């Protein structure tokens, strides 16, 4: 698919936010009345092809999807069938379908990594047949994020062949009777796994969405970067629209201001367009069923591989510690420790556990800072940290015994021209071995990053020389796309590399290793990959 199509798919994802004017500067947000008039809009714009029967529409009423799934469907109607929609009408239709024919939280949980565009995530395992029949072309999460009855799953097989006549070749389907399976036994298996009707959806339709207005406490982590924390103030507009203002800082004390405009689809699917510092980012979060917690991931709009985890809880909730930063302290050393949480009483006593003492304790509304000293004789293990009625955990160690590179297997993509490169972010997760032999995680550590050829063939073709390089925070930056006259057969700047992370432990260095594939551009970048 052309890079133009890729840009359209990115636009589809971005425009899930009903306040798309934030990003495009060209469309006003649709009025609440338009969103409320979803059935009439579907009747007006869809019934020309989808026949209506007593309020139900052929094909449309036989599906349930996430907001991204419905956005992709409407995009296909426009791109393949010539449907013409004003932007506010398109947004209102997607919103109506996501709200009335969406997925319950329990149904969407397994595939959330795809909605959140998490790089290098392990895909679902749906068994050898579905893995091959469907997983050769797209993620299995994409299957798991929609619901159909058996007949509709069968029609989907026909749609695939109609739209992509060469599918049996492109999906390497010549090793099996692909069409006969796709239209024969497979639909019933898919309907059993992902049925149109479910108890979870029936129950969720009765759910009254929570009002998310008010103050929230936020903690988050940027892989390869820094932890951050702070507060968010949410205010509700019409029909599930929200505005948020963020007052955050990272563990080095650097302030990060931001704001967001978002829509909550299906009563829990938060989709926002935000600024965090100098970055424009998308927010893909899930609101808990009780409306007291928001979790998910934000990522840079044009580079979904760059982002961070996000957890927010109401600032009026019961006392709890959300994060202890950093996660570990070495016996015989001192360092600054921050507790982030809610419900801290004024001048609440703070305890860091046996062998740890605190000085210069400073308390803020939702954070407690202290200079903590771990005695040289402190026994390695987990300490329960207590403050204001909440508890957390802090690891104590005397040495680093192992380092794991996360992810263990990563993918980067060369780029250039209209197709940007895709970087790969790694972290070095240290652990210490306890007296009983168990490994205790110490969290991310600063490391020195390098790569070596993964095997003899990668060494022969000099992959390390051509594929790219690491920056100081463990992010691999791939080279430009080829062909490269300096390589054998003028090959592309791809590579098969072993990732090496070295963490200093006093005078010693502990090494961890991972695997990195640097491959060609990805031309298709749908909201659900």
Low-confidence stretches: 1-11, 18-34
Spatial order of the strands forming the largest sheet: 5-6-7-8-9-10-11-12
**Strand tally:** 30
Q: Helix/strand-derived class?
A: alpha+beta
Helix content: 10-25%
Mean pLDDT, as a whole number?
A: 91
Q: Determine the strand fraction and express it as a percent band.
A: 35-45%
Number of domains: 4
The global form is globular
The N- to C-terminal Cα distance equals 14 Å
Number of helices: 17
The Cα radius of gyration reads: 25 Å
Largest sheet: 8 strands, antiparallel, barrel
Layout of strands and helices, then pairs:
Blueprint: H1 3-14, H2 21-24, H3 32-36, H4 38-46, E1 52-53, E2 56-57, E3 63-65, H5 67-81, H6 87-100, H7 105-108, H8 112-115, H9 128-133, H10 140-144, E4 146-148, H11 150-163, H12 167-170, H13 178-183, H14 186-193, H15 199-205, E5 214-221, E6 227-236, E7 241-250, E8 255-265, E9 269-276, E10 279-287, E11 293-300, E12 303-314, E13 320-325, E14 328-330, E15 334-342, E16 350-351, E17 356-363, E18 367-374, E19 381-387, E20 390-397, E21 402-406, E22 409-413, E23 424-425, E24 427-433, E25 439-445, E26 448-453, H16 456-460, H17 463-467, E27 468-470, E28 475-478, E29 495-505, E30 508-519
Parallel strand pairs: 14-20, 22-30
Antiparallel strand pairs: 1-2, 3-4, 5-6, 5-12, 6-7, 7-8, 8-9, 9-10, 10-11, 11-12, 13-15, 15-18, 16-19, 17-18, 19-20, 21-24, 23-28, 24-25, 26-29, 27-28, 29-30
């Amino acid at each position: 698919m052309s890079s133009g199509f890729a840009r359209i798919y990115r636009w589809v994802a971005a425009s899930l936010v009903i306040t798309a004017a934030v990003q495009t500067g060209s469309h006003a947000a649709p009025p609440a009345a338009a969103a409320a008039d979803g059935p009439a809009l579907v009747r007006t714009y869809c019934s020309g092809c989808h026949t209506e029967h007593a309020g139900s529409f052929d094909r449309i009423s036989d599906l349930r999807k996430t907001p991204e799934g419905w956005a992709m469907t409407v995009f296909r109607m426009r791109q393949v069938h010539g449907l013409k929609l004003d932007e506010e009408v398109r947004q209102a239709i997607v919103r109506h379908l996501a709200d009335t024919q969406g997925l319950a939280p329990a149904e969407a949980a397994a595939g959330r990594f795809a909605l959140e565009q998490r790089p290098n995530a392990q895909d679902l395992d749906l068994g050898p047949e579905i893995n091959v029949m469907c997983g050769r072309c797209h993620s299995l999460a994409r299957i798991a994020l929609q619901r159909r009855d058996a007949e509709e799953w069968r029609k989907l097989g026909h749609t695939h062949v109609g739209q992509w006549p060469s599918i049996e070749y492109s999906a390497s389907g010549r090793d099996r009777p692909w069409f006969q399976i796709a239209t024969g036994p497979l639909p019933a298996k898919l309907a059993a796994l992902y049925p149109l009707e479910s108890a979870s959806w029936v129950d969720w339709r009765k759910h009254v969405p929570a009002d998310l207005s008010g103050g929230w406490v936020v903690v988050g982590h940027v892989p390869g970067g820094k932890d951050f924390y702070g507060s968010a103030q949410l205010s509700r507009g019409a029909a599930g629209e929200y505005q948020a203002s963020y007052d955050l800082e990272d563990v080095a004390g650097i302030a990060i201001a931001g704001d967001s405009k978002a829509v909550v689809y299906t009563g829990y699917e938060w989709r926002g367009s935000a600024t965090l510092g100098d970055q424009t980012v998308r927010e893909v979060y899930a609101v808990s069923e009780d409306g007291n917690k928001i979790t998910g991931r934000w990522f840079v709009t044009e580079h979904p591989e760059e982002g961070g985890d996000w957890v927010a809880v109401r600032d009026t909730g019961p006392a709890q510690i959300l994060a202890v930063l950093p996660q570990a302290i070495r016996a015989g050393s001192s360092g600054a420790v921050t507790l982030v949480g809610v419900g801290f009483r004024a001048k609440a006593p703070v305890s860091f556990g046996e062998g740890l003492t605190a000085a210069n304790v400073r308390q803020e509304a939702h954070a407690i800072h202290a200079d903590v000293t771990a005695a040289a004789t402190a026994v390695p293990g987990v300490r329960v940290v207590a403050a204001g009625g909440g508890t957390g955990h802090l690891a104590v160690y005397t040495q680093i015994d192992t380092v794991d590179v996360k992810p263990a297997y990563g993918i980067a993509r060369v780029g250039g021209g209209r197709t940007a490169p895709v970087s790969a972010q790694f972290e070095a997760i240290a652990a210490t071995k306890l007296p009983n032999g168990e490994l205790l995680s110490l969290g991310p550590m600063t490391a020195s990053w390098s790569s070596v050829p993964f095997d003899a063939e990668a060494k022969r073709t000099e992959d390390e020389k051509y594929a790219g390089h690491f920056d100081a925070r463990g992010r691999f930056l791939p080279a430009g796309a080829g062909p490269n006259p300096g390589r054998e057969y003028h090959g592309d700047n791809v590579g098969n590399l072993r990732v090496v992370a070295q963490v200093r432990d006093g005078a010693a260095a502990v090494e961890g290793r991972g695997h990195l594939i640097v491959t060609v551009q990805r031309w298709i970048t749908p909201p659900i990959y």
